[in-house]
Amino acid sequence: MARRPQRFTEDDFESLEGRASKTEQKKAVQRMAALGEQLAELSKKQIQSLPVEERLIEALLDVQLITSFEARRRQFQRIGKLLRNEDEAVILSYLTPKQGVKKLAQLDRWVERMIEQRDPAIKEFCKSYNAAEGHSLRQHVLRIHRDITRQASAEELAASKLKLLNYAQQVALISDNSK
């Protein structure tokens, strides 16, 4: 006797909505490792003044002493994992002086454009910034539009937009670094 396929309910899909896929999780670790590389370029004094866990500060200081390529790569992976526990906004605030005010204003305009135009603007952003992933950008924009349609509070909407801006800043930092 053949089994009947299980019927999925709307609740099943809603429970998966906020979760990131394994690929997205791996790419997030890669982005964090790349941000770790940029943090490692800061001076010893700047690293020690970072408002992060002591383990992360030690890892950033250790990587400056490592000369082996493979050992550095592994250390940056470790730094990426440690960065996941930290506040993205705080870390980006230490790296944004590298970008400058003009670049931040440009990224803010990109965010607004992606929210308004969706796919065409997302594709253009991905062309401009090689580290950008269209799927992740679409997910952020989709969450913002869901917040708008369900008339979420201003704080929730601002938080969703901030997540998109943080992602755009990370991508811009990584893309600028790899050019």
TrEMBL record:
RNA-binding among keywords: yes
InterPro entries: DarP, DarP_sf
Region (Disordered) location: 1-27
Superkingdom of this protein's organism: Bacteria
Keywords recorded for this protein, A-Z: Cytoplasm, Ribosome biogenesis, RNA-binding, rRNA-binding
Signal peptide (residue range): none
Gene Ontology biological process terms in this record: ribosome biogenesis
UniProt biased composition (Basic and acidic residues): 16-27
GO MF term set: rRNA binding
GO CC list: cytosol
The protein's name in its UniProt record: Ribosome-associated protein
Protein's organism: Acinetobacter bereziniae LMG 1003 = CIP 70.12
Taxonomic placement: Bacteria, Pseudomonadati, Pseudomonadota, Gammaproteobacteria, Moraxellales
